Amino acid sequence: MIFYKRDAPLFIKGCCIYFGCFSMATLTRQDLNFGQVVADILCEFLEVAIHLILYVREIYPSGIFQKRKKYNVPVQMSCHPELNQYIQDTLHCVKPLIQKNEAEKVVMVIMDKEHHPVERFVFEISQPPLLSISSETLLSHVEQLLRAMILKISVCDAVLDNNPPGCTFTLLVHTREAATRNMEKVQVIKDFPWIVADEQEVHMEEAKLIPLKTMTSDILKMQLYVEERTQKN
Amino acid sequence: MSRDGWRKKASEDDGWGGRGGYMAAKISKLEEQFQKDAPSEKQKDGTSSCIFSGVAIYVNGYTDPSADELRRLMMLHGGQFHLYYTRSKTTHIIATNLPNRKIQDLKGEKVVRPEWITDSIKAGRQLSYVQYQLYMKQKGLNYSSVCARGKQDTSSIHEPSKPSLNHLQSDSIKPQPSHTQTLSTEVLKSTHANHKANFTERSNHQLDVRLNGSCSIISEEDAERPRVNGIHDGDDDDVDDNACALLPRGSQDTLLTNGYVHPVNAALKPQDSFAELQLHVVDTGSHQSHLPQTESRDREEPSCSSSGSKANSHQRSLISTASPAKQPGLHSMQKDLHPKPTSNPGTSAAPQKGNLHDQTRVRLNGSYHMTPNSSTLADSSNPPGRSAAGAEAGIISEFFSRSRLHHISTWRNEFSEYVNALQSRSRAAGGAVFSGQEKLKKLRANCSSGSLMAAPQVRQSCILHVDMDCFFVSVAVRHRPDLKGKPVAVTSNRGPGRVAQRPGANPQLEFQYYQRKQQQYRKEKTDGDLEMTPSPQCDEVPSNGVDLDLAALSMAEIASCSYEARQAGVRNGMFFGRAKQLCPDLQSVPYDFQAYKEVALSMYETLASYTHNIEALSCDEALVDATNLLVELGVTSDDLARAIREDIKEKTGCTASVGMGSNILLARMATRKAKPNGQYFLRSEEVDDFIRGQPVSSLPGVGRSMSSKLTSLGVSTCGDLQQLSISRLQREFGPRTGQTLFRFCRGLDDRPVRSEKERKSVSAEMNYNIRFTQVEEAESFLTNLSMEVQKRMEGAGLRGRRITLKVMMRKPGAPVEPAKYGGHGICDNFARSVLLAQPTDSGQLIAAEAIKLFYAMKLDVKDMRGVGLQVQQLEGSYADPSGQGPSRGRSIKDLLLAKQPAHSPRKDPPAQDGLTGPSSSRAFSSNQERVTPPSSPPSTSSDPMPGTSKGGLHHPHTPNHVRTYLNVSIEVPSPSQVDQSVLEALPVDIRKQVEQSWRHREEQPSTSSHLSTPPRTSSSPPPGPSLGTLVLQLQNQPGQPCTTGIILELPDVSQVDPEVFAALPRELQDELCSAYRNKGNAQAQGITVGKKNPFPQLKQPAVGKLKRRYKKRNASPAKKGPSPLKKLFPGNSPAKSSPSKTLPLPLKHPGLKTENVQCPSSPSTDVPETLSKFNPRPVPTLAGAYEFSDIRTLLREWVTSISEPMEEDILQVVKYCTELVEDKDLEKLYLVIKYMKRLMQQSSESVWSMAFDFILDNVQVVVQQTYGSTLKIT
Where is this chain's protein located in or outside the cell (chain A) (predicted)? Predict the structure, then answer.
């Protein structure tokens, strides 16, 4: 599991990366196995979602975000290279897990100055075990579902309380069973090892659960909910 | 329903609030119109009369003549016509045809055919409506069930063990049982004196013991028993017994206890002490040497009293009168009552006597619990070490058989039953003879004929509230003229009211606690309003600290005191010691339960001689609906009241007061004014003035907490209360209470006088003398308490689903020994409840649940001071559930259960349902006795019940080839399919039946379901295991001696969840595959399965059939069901009762376990039902609804169309929500919850918000378990 400490926010403008680099067409290629497809779709989505959450929850100043279009809706993506790198690296490491259906949850924890979590955005993932992708319509359906989820994230501040100033975030992965052991063997990215998360980061007292969205498709079932600390300040 | 509708409207701030809401305004306007139109109509027609004066009709549905015509007729003939039905004002309902529902709603109302009006007009006088009643039989039905219950109860009265009407507190002001009563200020004063008194007392008792000298084994035994018995006497502070009966204290202690507890038994009603003393003789009679001892002990008690132990003195003298007097007759009595002990009097030696005795005690009380130690205790030569459980086994039933608390509860019920019995009897006789009425008629005839004219022209409802004046006192004083006019109190204490203090007790502390509590109340009040008049409860608080020094006074409460005593400041419920201070020449009188019963009975008889429209409130008060009576007799209410009072005075020698008013509320309030020994009619014109001056606390339902809350709102009188708007009240007190308050403070009350009241809960509670040392004690206590509950439920013929465990725990910091001996002292209350899947009255089940709850509460047994068990959500256990009163929520389940034959296995304790082999196989066999001849079954192939979609379960190796139809008939498989060994293992009679049915079948071979006919009966199972069925060989079933095979009908291949399939063990997979292959071979017309299918080689035969069935079923809930509930839970009961019951064996199989656990949890109608067998996680549905919009519609209909949610339905919703959590569909869950919150909390019924809270609580628990946090509900 990964722990990332935020550096002082930088303000960079004009850095424009087209994010929607994976096109759906690539995903339907016959040579890709099913798990890989799901992992790609999911990681792509997670990246968008994490950026958006960072924006919506005001973890970083809005200046580092830029408006893009993804899933046919506007999203906000960070332009901060280090931040982006962190997110990408993390997801890159998560991908093999998803591929093997070993990741149970991907959690984005927002912590206050004392590194006590105030909010946890939990992406709970479950994949149907034995199904395969058959047609393209299926994927467009998935896209619709993901879009709905993105939209839900963009309005989630309506149901959440404001965070205290100076928050940081970290990404955690809840793995199934003994997947961690394998993880340590294979280091996907050099110098980017997984760390077992502190109890402090995982555990949140008096948490309230706010379900945001659930999607059910043939290849993927995912739900997003937020656990929010009752007393944030 | 409609009333609720009005309330809702009235509650909205629509500008009609001032006139009691829009509806009220409209109704009064309609009435005005009617009055205005009447004269002109009369002119037009010319034939007016006053036949119907006092009659107000409401036309329901189509009538001939029409409603308009009836309205005209009523105008002409002096009647009233109501466009809207009001229970209190409308006298007759005119209808020619009514739906069942309405009949039930209108039970007890006069539903009359329109001919009554036309015929009356023809006859020129108001005919009796009786012949014109629309539904005579409906009433008969109601009362028949009542009768049955009545019989049960009356029979139980005659049992000597069951307490008959004994209850001490006559005064309606403090109906609360005294030992749950908070110690009021009197505690405060009894502190120091206690100490001294106690010491003297103690030494006395030591003397006692010594006098008894050789306290033999038996006397030890006796020491146990009195302790046990003493418990009943809840408010005798000086009953020096203790739940320490449970823990072996020092032997000296027990002896001590023995010393003066015994008399207390005699202080009870004689019957009880009979029983008690009989037991004595059981002990001593066969072992003669003990007899003198016990007797001598009894006799010694009184003598002790003279020697200075004052606290108990009065009890002692009691025993001197009671117990010795009884003793002579005991031997003979004992014979009929205790066959067992007498049957072998000589055989057992002395030590065993104790045992026998134990058993008898238990039996005596009619409870069925076994005394666990009865065998182990054979050696009673070691009495002090006797296990606590033994003493306890009888403790509870003893407690309840004597507890005044218990008497209070039975008291009113008994009179209700009495009234009911009277009613039904008179109905059976075709009309009652009312002697009182006759007398009154004569009286009136004797009067001048002028009084005929004086008879009230306007019919107005008139309720009489008859209340005996300080009941217990006047009963006691009846035969003691010397006490008349003196301050008299009925209490168990007769000394100067001083007792010694026990170690560990700290009355001062308790006193301070309660004082602080009082002060808190005051503070709240003064905060709220400075010019507050203190509420009556506060008046009793002695704020002077002087009283503190005068402590150690008797804490026996005064059950009732005479008016003379009241003048001196004595109040009911006061501690005797304190009262004695206030009024030094206060005379105390002992209880006399027999006399109370006699007097109360004769009071009710008197009332019943006038009318049967009586609602029993308690032993000494009753409500009488005299509306009809007055019209019939043509007398004024005052005359009637006077006659009744004179009658009562004559028959009982006690005085009664009568309050009269147009509704119950006013009648009760008038009684206050009427007292003592008077009558008062609160006329409608003076109601307003009268009620404005009344303190709010005089309103029913306004207790201490509510009045303090009201005080904080600046309200002390009803007049103040009237100033508050209804919305404000509803905000403060909740929708229902607010509405009630709003109406009550205006003198409005439309509660009808009901002779029969429905029970809401059955409970047993004991918070006296609870001192556990070990968890096991608490456990066995709970078990015994559960047995007591079972007994009561059986007595009432009820079963319940919700079990609540209430525990009183010593408040941290409170003294270990409370001021009142054996009392609970200052306590914190805890309660937990659990909901069972099915209603039960099984004590064992209740006990199991209670113990679970108890452990879940994680309490320290040592601090337990009170335990109560309550069972709610009752339904009749044997009666047709649909025949329950209209106030019950309605559910489809009732309907279905009603349709189902009575042998739906209600007797089975729910926990066993569909769980274990043995019990269910018994169910099979019992079903089998009702086996229909096998000639018929295939005809029901398209049976509509969702439960049967499983197609019936086959047990080819067991002889019962079970098929579940709606009527749970069972098809016997053909002989070839039956495992001989299993057949042989069956009981002979069943085997014979099976064989017989085979023979029967052979005679009619053409009708049997053979291989030739499978296509037509495809939804019923094909007979051979070879066809589309799967044989599961279950091995090593625990508790299942013979190996049993089950044949399940295979679901469609498409429905087989590949994941589950993959998870199955290898052999099972193979078996499945081959089964499918067989199926495919046998029925070649199958359709090829889609490529997703894991078994592409298999065919799928029954697709068409199944599809058709889906369609049918899908259509029905959407369109057919008239009630939304029907839609909500169509599969509810059949799914629960039939399929899961007949499907117990697969449960045992590990591979199938999950799905079957899930299967009942899915509301089980549509696809998921059929899928569930092989799909581990069916999509959660609520009554077949899956889409959120559908669910929303369902919920909305449910909430809006039903006034009181049924537990069943709530549970279904909870279940659905739980499934959503399991299905990881939190979003939908969240939406559903939020939607329900909106719906239910908006509902005018507070039940709904309670229902929501319940649902939410349950869901939160599940979410908490799954996610570690709870849902945020804003």
Answer: Nucleus
